[in-house]
Design a protein that fits this description.
The complex is a heterotetramer. Chain A is α/β, with parallel strands linked by helices. Chain A has three helices and nine strands. Classes of the chains: A alpha/beta, B alpha+beta, C mainly alpha, D alpha+beta.
């Protein structure tokens, strides 16, 4: 199923919700589409849309291939790459969140269990909270680490528990 | 009961087979290369040509174009040049060319853009030093100054240009 | 031992007033000391070098070849190194038990060498309960290992100690049953009598006496492997799981005591196997009469030397097999270890002992044809094995290289 | 007096002989049987994805070796393909073939270590050293091609950095010639060993639904019976022209999806890689090996998600560019990360020795989990 069909089908299930289709970027010279196109979905409806995408037979997106976030300086984008082993088609979903500490979105752990660790990683590196996630704590960094590294405005601490985080350069 | 006997027979045959294989290994030549003192062939022969050992800069053909310094992803090359007041033509001279081989990850991104293949890898890797500062290789001796190499016009024309030629130049310097 | 002591008393007049029993005791103690210092300790060290060389060649490596000619003195170097190493005792460890454990393990192992014969005359103490004493003494090692596991106050050591206790205790049963079968045949527990009951040629050995004996030999061999913590049963110190089991917290000479025990145990397993099943130090009577006919000191020592040589050769073959198994087979899990013991080896032990008892009633003198048949069977298996090895060497298409000292 | 038997909390790692890198398992056991083994990762977190935002597109290539240092070539090519796709760069067929050759040789190298270390974790030391002996020969070949044995840094955006050395293909074919019988011998020594079948059969069973739900990929997924290989089902590069089978777990040593199946799939995959390599050497065309690429690559602002079949399964690179010469966001989605997330669920009720075999059969590598 192509992206347009998926969007049309989804629009039938969710009348009032604006599901926007963004074309992939075109190459300036050859005008061929080199980027991926995706569906932008409202952040609060993400759990139901994912549930329908998994359960409805035509979609049957049974595999959450990738879940990550992008810090666009003025907004967070949580990106879901879904894939269906049955129909062998894939889909990119994006949810836009305000760029501040209160950014939060519904967890999709109930739909795909592999989201548990992926969401913990996004929380750890971006600080995006996932509502009623089973155990939302840092996965990569020690629990008492200050700040979320993958944010564009992240300043690394001078030292961590007395261990300095920079090494004096040998070259002068 | 048959499961019981099958287990015994299978274990016996597979142990027998395994034992015959390891016993047959007693009649094979060990493959250990007894580095450092009992290697059959001298070490440099065994290391392939493209081996990425310590970096070395051949100062005669270095044109001080700073391509390697800009391309190094972790900035472990520092090159300083200054106007040379004493000489008449006031052209640039190299005063410092240091490579921090302790921080370098030997990725080879600096040897690619070098037009004349001055910076290249050697086959030398045995350089354990007590003090880490000894691993900062200074290619311009203290206090001296080196005049960058100016490729003669004819050669210069062919020397420049895109990745392909540089790889070629780099290839020749390397082989 | 008596002849030696009487000889000593005639030669040295000063010993006349001393009561005879003290002289026998003195001779035994001196001989035990000499045997332990001169034979068992160096044997354990050399076996460690031999094992590392064989393991290396089986893995296409070279093994230690730097210390001494072809690395022969590697074990001396290791010994000195471990003596010089700092001997750390963890603060939370139980001080007394922690220090005592290696000595118990060591004592349990070395006490067993008292009844191991070297030749018809050369044995420290020819107890009439020889083999029974041997089984009893080796279970002191279990106490030592448990003590080490508990005293080092480390979770891994505790797990290792528990596992090895369960393993050694439960493998005493099949080992005992297999030995029982041999005692049926000889009617005596003394190891010298067991060996005297066998002859020099393979068909006179107990191994080929009747069809049940090979089963008993295999179950004795497997269970003594398990008691010696050798692969595929080296679960107590399974490097990949328990770091190194009960000996994790030990360092320096204490650590070496555990490994010293393991390598000395190799010889013990081989000696028991040879004495009980492979005809111990028996040499063909003609050779014996020819050797003793040479007269003088040579006539007295040569037969014993030849007997010791055959005993040592047979034990060396079994030690090689034990080492060789270690570098071939993976390790089995603890519950599989237990099921192997209770579901396979113990039933085999009962069946073998019942079978031998019935066999002895039906054929009191034993049947020579059966012995020849069993000998022929064993020979074909060995021949097929060497054919299989030749096939492997040919199949791998690698050049043949036989010189072990590369 | 009621004996209180509380559970023992065992700390397996982060420094442990068989956790394949720096990973810690908090294991709650009573005696042998574990009630839970919670993995604790992050010890090897170097935040490669943050470095991607600071290094230029070309300068980031050495770091892709470090994402999964056992399959450096696969990560190189995955990242290079992502940048080429977003920047619209077409690379020459010879470069494609050189990449596939290096990747398949890299797959053999990585699988040899995976299979060997599984043998060592269950106690068989000799097969481990045999596997390493073959791996060293393959490492020598790759060292001759690109200069390093582990962090190749061989692919570039627009092709590869070197062409083959003069008779390199003859050397590789000679290696493959003597590799197959030794692989069969390794098979007879370890795979047919009854003790190995007993140790791995029916241990750590992952059903097909669980595998897809936890998004296991590569040999872990094929071991559970799902016939899915990106090289075959979503072909890229020159894989459509090559014919090879996709081995799938059969449950011969117990249950479908147990440790033995994952191990056996890797053994068969090595044989397929040998077949692929032979075909590649026959078909490789002449031509240039690196397309002329502008010094500062500035792809148009957009995002792209490229999936390639690495040794540990489907390695996805999600690249977001904002038009500048530095990537805005690069995300490596690696197979070991999800394989590690399933350990907690499957390891309930297992024995300690089985946990070691289960981790080894998943072939996880610490740098790929923590990036």
């Amino acid at each position: 199923m192509t992206l347009e069909q998926i969007q049309k089908k989804l629009a039938e299930f969710y009348k009032g919700i604006a599901i926007e289709l963004i074309e992939g970027v075109k190459h300036p010279v050859t005008q061929a589409q080199t980027g991926d196109s995706c569906l932008v979905v409202p952040a609060d409806k993400i759990k139901d849309i994912c549930k329908t995408l998994k359960t409805i037979e035509q979609f049957s997106f049974d595999c959450l291939s990738n879940l990550t976030a992008v810090d666009r300086k003025d907004r967070f984008e949580v990106v879901y790459h879904l894939f269906s082993y049955k129909h062998r088609h894939s889909l990119t979903l994006k949810a836009v969140l305000p760029r501040d500490d209160s950014a939060h979105i519904e967890t999709v752990e109930g739909v795909w269990s592999c989201a548990n660790w992926l969401e913990r990683e996004v929380y750890d590196l971006f600080g995006i909270k996932f509502d009623n996630h089973s155990d939302l704590r840092r996965i990569m960094l020690p629990d008492d680490w200050i700040g979320h590294p993958l944010r564009k405005d992240y300043k690394e601490e001078e030292d961590y528990h007395g261990i300095s985080t920079t090494r004096p350069p040998l070259l002068s | 009961m048959s499961e019981y006997l099958k287990n015994i027979v299978e274990t016996a045959t597979s142990v027998f087979e395994g034992m015959s294989i390891t016993f047959s290994h007693l009649f094979r030549k060990p493959v250990t290369i007894q580095y450092p003192d009992k290697t059959e062939r001298p070490l440099t022969e065994m290391i392939p040509d493209r081996f990425r050992g310590f970096l070395k800069v051949d100062m005669e053909i270095c044109t001080a174009c700073l391509a390697c310094m800009n391309d190094c992803p972790i900035d472990c090359i520092i090159i300083k040049t200054k106007k040379d007041e004493t000489s008449a033509t006031k052209e640039r001279v190299l005063t410092q060319f240091d490579i921090d081989e302790a921080k370098c990850m030997y990725c080879g991104l600096c040897t690619e853009p070098c037009p004349t293949g001055a910076i290249h890898f050697t086959k030398e890797f045995e350089r354990a030093t007590e003090d880490i500062n000894d691993l900062v290789f200074k290619f311009v001796p203290e206090g001296q100054v080196i005049v960058p190499y100016k490729a003669p016009k004819k050669e210069a024309a062919s020397g420049g240009g895109g990745a392909l030629d540089e790889a070629e130049a780099e290839e020749t310097a390397d082989a | 031992m008596q002849k030696l002591a009487d000889l000593l008393i005639q030669k040295i007049p000063a010993l006349q007033p001393v009561p005879v029993d003290f002289v026998y005791l003195g001779v035994q103690v001196v001989f035990a000391l000499v045997m332990l210092m001169a034979f068992v300790a160096p044997f354990a060290g050399i076996v460690s070098w031999v094992e590392r060389r064989i393991a290396a060649r089986m893995m296409d490596r070279v093994g230690p070849n730097r210390v001494g000619p072809q690395g022969f003195f590697q074990w001396i170097a290791d010994g000195i190194k471990s003596i010089l190493k700092e001997d750390i005792i963890p603060t939370a460890a139980d001080p007394i038990l922690f220090r005592l454990a290696p000595y118990l393990v060591f004592a349990g192992m070395f006490a067993a060498f008292v009844t191991i014969p070297f030749s018809s005359g050369l044995i420290i103490a020819d107890l009439n309960v020889g083999i029974f004493y041997l089984i009893a003494v080796t279970s002191i090692v279990v106490v030592g290992i448990l003590m080490a596991g508990w005293a080092s106050n480390n979770k891994y050591s505790l797990l290792g100690g528990m596992r090895s206790a369960a393993q050694i205790v439960s493998y005493e049963i099949p080992a005992g049953l297999a030995i029982l079968v041999v005692v049926f045949l000889t009617g005596s527990l003394s190891i010298q009598d067991i060996i005297k009951g066998q002859g020099a040629y393979p068909w006179q050995w107990y191994l080929f006496d009747n069809p049940f004996m090979p089963v008993a030999f295999l179950s004795l061999f497997i269970s003594s492997l398990a008691e010696g913590n050798r692969t595929p049963f080296d679960i107590p110190e399974a490097e990949s799981e328990l770091v190194s089991g009960y000996s994790t917290e030990y360092s320096g000479m204490r650590f070496v005591f555990f490994y010293f025990e393991e390598w000395a145990n190799l010889y013990l397993i081989a000696a028991v196997g040879t004495a009980l099943f492979l005809g111990g130090w028996q040499i063909p009577p003609e050779v014996k009469t020819w050797a003793s006919a040479l007269g003088g000191v040579v006539g007295f020592t040569l037969p014993h030397a030849l007997e010791f040589a055959t005993f040592f050769l047979k034990s060396a073959v079994i030690v090689f097999i034990i080492i060789w198994i270690r570098w071939t087979l993976p390790r089995i899990r603890v519950d599989q270890l237990m099921s192997l013991c209770w579901k396979y080896l113990t039933p085999f032990g009962f069946a073998a002992s019942l079978g031998v008892a019935v066999w002895m009633v039906v054929f009191p003198q034993g049947v020579m044809s059966v012995r020849y048949a069993l000998c022929a069977g064993a020979a074909t298996i060995v021949l097929y094995f060497f054919y299989r090895v030749a096939y492997q060497v040919w199949y791998s298409r690698q050049p043949i290289h036989v010189n072990p000292f590369v | 007096m009621e004996l209180n038997t509380e559970e023992m909390l065992l700390n397996m790692g982060p420094q442990h002989p068989s956790t394949h890198g720096v990973i810690r398992f908090v294991v709650k056991t009573d005696g042998e049987v574990m009630s839970a083994a919670v993995p604790d990762i992050g010890y090897l977190h170097r935040s490669i994805e943050k470095i991607a935002e600071k290094a230029t597109y070309n300068g980031f290539m050495p770091w892709t070796d470090r994402v999964d240092y056992l399959a450096a070539m696969n990560c190189n090519v995955a990242y290079a393909m992502a940048v080429e796709k977003i920047a619209g760069i077409e690379i020459s067929r010879r470069a494609e073939y050189l990449r596939v050759i290096a990747m398949e040789l890299n797959r053999i190298i990585s699988h040899l270590l995976a299979v060997g270390s599984l043998g060592m974790d269950i106690g068989a030391y000799t097969p481990f050293v045999h596997a390493l002996r073959e791996r060293e020969k393959a490492n020598d070949l790759i060292e001759e091609l690109c200069g390093q044995r582990l962090t190749y840094n061989y692919a570039r955006i627009g092709g590869v950095i070197y062409d083959m050395t003069p008779n390199w293909d003859a050397k590789v074919l000679a290696f493959l010639e003597q590799f197959e019988p030794l692989l069969n011998e390794f098979d007879r020594l370890l795979t047919d060993a009854k003790i190995l079948k007993k140790r791995l059969g029916g241990v750590g069973v992952v059903t097909a639904e669980e595998a897809i739900n936890y998004n296991l990929v590569g040999p872990n997924l094929r071991g559970s019976g799902v016939k899915w290989d990106l090289r075959k089902d979503m072909p890229y590069s020159v894989y459509p022209e090559l014919d090879f089978e996709v081995p799938v777990g059969t449950g011969e040593a117990g249950v479908l999806g147990d440790c033995f199946d994952r191990y056996n799939v890797r053994m068969k995959e090595m044989r397929e890689s040998v077949k692929i390599l032979r075909q590649c050497f026959e078909r490789i065309p002449a031509g240039e090996y690196q397309v002329k690429v502008p010094k500062k690559i500035r792809p148009p602002a957009g995002d792209v998600y490229v999936r390639t079949e690495s040794t540990r399964g489907d390695l996805g690179v999600y690249l977001v560019s904002d038009g500048s010469d530095k990537a805005c966001r690069v995300k490596f989605r690696c197979g070991s990360f999800n394989a590690m997330s399933i350990v907690e669920k499957i390891s309930r009720g297992m024995m300690v020795a089985d946990l070691i075999a289960f981790i080894a059969s998943l072939d996880i590598v610490a740098p790929e989990i923590d990036r």
